[in-house]
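Table S4 entry, Hydroxyethylthiazole kinase.
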Amino acid sequence: MQPDLLDRAQTAHALQQFRRRSPLVHCMTNDVVQTFTANVLLALGASPAMVIEPEEAQQFSAIADALLINVGTLTRERADAMRAAIDSARAADTPWTLDPVAVGALTFRTQFCQQLLTLQPAAIRGNASEILALAGMSAGGRGVDTTDTASTALPAAQTLARQTGAIVAVTGEVDYITDGERTLMVTGGDALMTRVVGTGCALSAVVAASCALEGNRLVNVATACAFMARAGSLAVTKSTGPGSFVAEFLDALYALNGEGLQ
Ligand SMILES: Nc1ncnc2c1ncn2[C@@H]1O[C@H](COP(=O)(O)OP(=O)(O)O)[C@@H](O)[C@H]1O
Ligand SMILES: Cc1ncsc1CCOP(=O)(O)O
Ligand SMILES: [Mg+2]
């Protein structure tokens, strides 16, 4: 079935809700993208907090509105803290989101993410190679980068969504967001987004935040993708390379209105 585009009224409503609700997002993410992730959430009006000590992580995930688990720089100790945070989030009915960074070639993180799939993630967001690998359909990409296109990974995303009950977002030149039955498509963004570290990881944090909103989760996750794509499209027209892109991108997120969020 052909993917649908997002409805303009729904995305405008989700943006409004995002700012009004200002989700408190517990980010357990990698060492590379901490500040960028926090800045992206803040620019959109959400409230990030990076809590990683095992005991505190367990405590905080029950207080936060949403939890992000990103395995980009996973260690054994972090894996234990992440499991504790997920258990506590689930007990508190807090939605949690998985970013399976570089899953496939690396055994420890691949096994860890496979185990997490049984713990009812609300959403999973990855690039094409990560989603293919997580679904057991390929051996992963090139480190943290994809070697596949998002459209190639769409069947894997749909299978994963049906198996886990999560909304799965597979991103790239076009983003596809699926619950296994219905699929939404988000266009826009720019290839320059792959020349700046952390756009995918930060998007996963925004996806996590969107899971705390009321309404249809498939639409809310797709709207999160649309925020990033739209800001990317706007920022690239004002920037001359990766450095100025980052500043323009944060400004564009901050100034987003309902326009162009498809
Ligand atoms: N070629 C591209 N054209 C437009 N947008 C892109 C392109 N590649 C990635 N993006 C955007 O960059 C963001 C990060 O996605 P992606 O690169 O797939 O994740 P990751 O950084 O985890 O590999 C998403 O908003 C996605 O839509
Ligand atoms: C470079 C790198 N290495 C481990 S995690 C990470 C960041 C990946 O960020 P993104 O998935 O958003 O490109
Ligand atoms: Mg990534």
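Residues 217-238 form the longest helix (22 residues).
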